[in-house]
Amino acid sequence: MEQPYSAGWFFGIGNIILYDINYLQNIIMHKYFLFFLLYPIVFFAQDSKTTLRVNTKVYNQIALSVLEGDIYDIKTLGKDPYLFFNPLEEDLDKKNNHLVFEYFCPTGLDFLEIHFYPQNNDLKPKIIRDIGSTEGWVTFSIDLSEALKTWGKKGDYLRLDLGPAPALSIQLKHLALRQQTKRELEIAKNKALKKKQEVILERNLVTYLDKDFPNQISNVLVTDEIVRLEGKVSDDKNLHLAEVGVYEDATELKDFSFLEVIEPKDKTFNITLDRFKTQHGYKQDRLLSKWIIVEKKEDKYKVASHARYADSIVPKYNYPFKKPSTKKGLGGYSINREAPYTDLDSLGITSATVNIWISKFFRSNPSPEDMPFEYMGDTYYVNKKQIKNLDNTFLSTSERNIEVSAILLVDKASKTPDKKIGHILEHPDCDPSGIYSMPNLTTPKGVQYYSAILDFLANRYSRPDKKFGRIHHWIIHNEVDAGWVWTNAGEKTALVFMDIYHKSMRMSHNIARKYNPNSKVFITLTHFWDWTSNPHFYHSTELLEFLLKFSKTEGDFEWAIAYHPYPESLREPKTWLDKKVSFSFDSQLITFKNIEVLDAWVKQPKVFFKGKTKRLVYLSENGTNSPTYSEQDLKEQAAGMAYAMKKIKYLDGIDGFQYHNWQDNRNEGGLRIGLRRFPDDKDNPGGIKPVWKVYQAFGTEMEDKVYDQYKTMIGINSWDEIRYKGPINETRNQN
């Protein structure tokens, strides 16, 4: 492509029209004619970085608009979409060698291509493949060091090509050229060593999980004071019971901090230990430990069984499990939202999810704004105001007998108000690209602090008197198959990632069960099933199979599934048009169109808890979008939800549905996925949309009256037509 700026520019005062005869001839030949303005300040340095601005007058095959907050909203219109940045106002500091930006793109790009202007034979375009999909704002960083050898003078500029796909929607913000951060340098420096270590860990985990050991720990009971372990051995020679802390990897240990000789009777053993111990400067709760049999050979210990977590925990409270009376719930609820909380009553809500950013209210030191709490003999602190907000939210749900699932989120250290807490809780391998981090379970300190805040929440919100409200279940982080975005632990294989995540699930489960015998922990997944549009993501099927394997080998626990079956494109509400779906267990996606696949998967005997009980399945985040507030778009959003609810209604493997989002949110990349309009909408701020009425009518005598108007739009005569009643196959079949 020809460059739009030439060496023979004419400058005037203020905004001046620029042109170049050769360029005009070229663009006329391409059947388009562009005029553009050069702003007096186009690039400027700030905080040792060069902020970039997109040229809003010159671009190709895109629709471009600038939203509030300097967000560039881009829709591609052809197979060669690109835009330009405004030229450098001064020579670039060569230290600013990384192009960075944040982007929101639910579909992902095939590639990005960076062109350097003015062009010359030494400056080849920089191509970045597989720019993965993201449903949140993710930071992307590109090293341009090589190009800066000959590029970066005053007047130089960049062109950004956005792949070959038309009808793509992407938003960009915070574009800049800056230095590589200390964190990025650290990750790059340690990348090779970390990869080598994880190759070994992966190999050892595969061997461990697949091995059939002759020895077994069959049951671990935890009471107020003791841990009682039972098991059987095939040989009583040199066998020891060993303890493995959360921060340790059983397959990698050479030495164990606790060992007890096993003295079997008739090849069985029964060992009772104190529940609490002091180690690494902390009083530790063995509720969180797992136990393994090792064989001593000379001065070394060899793993001789699978490890075992607690099977049974004597709880502080004992009240019955009460299933919500309907499947209808609300996602991302908070009493502080701008939407009226009376919607809980108007919509007939019986369940809800609540986001808890644990590192936002956790504090490392006392202050008048914080309140103390005790855990294992040490004092910790939480922010009074934020805890009061949580109390008010959970009180508003408990007084309505609404079941609540708390979503546990760990901010990156850079985003936490208390940096000390942030660094303690952030996973050491967390990449800056992620929105949230996996908790740091690699050190005794990280485990102790994470345990402390989990215990605080479970204790406070499990009381029988509901003094502060009630949390019933725990969704462990967010969309872990898209962990690179939502639960970042760096670049990991699926098995190594699940090994870390499984620890967080077990910790949360055991601490919750310490207070409530019916609390369940949920693995949280996107609509990607046996495919992904991002090379950093995992297949949900793969993670679930690994979780089943860990449960089988290390003692089953009553985990559940929080699935997000959005339509194939989050921007397209007509989910009946989804293409990447089939009625098979290896379907690429599970959306509303083929939600029967998830229903069938969870009903397999191999998936049952201890082979007997179907696991709980909540569709904990899902909704349909209205691209605009036009009458047609609002009707299509409502039709998509009517289609979804009419399917889910008859699937007994699906236990709950929490609609996301309650209200349209400006921070969701242009999506209008709410039941209500934007709170600052100029025409009807916070107004209810037709989809609100669809959701309200579900399960009531008004259901058919409200829903039937959408059958023509979907292209059916009867709702029975949308229900799939055939077999779910092992391989993909025709729809």
UniProtKB/TrEMBL annotation:
Coiled coil: none
Transmembrane feature ranges: 6-24
Nucleus is among the record's keywords: no
Source organism superkingdom: Bacteria
Keyword Transmembrane listed: yes
Keywords on record: Membrane, Transmembrane, Transmembrane helix
Ranges of residues in domain DUF5722: 321-722
Protein name, per record: DUF5722 domain-containing protein
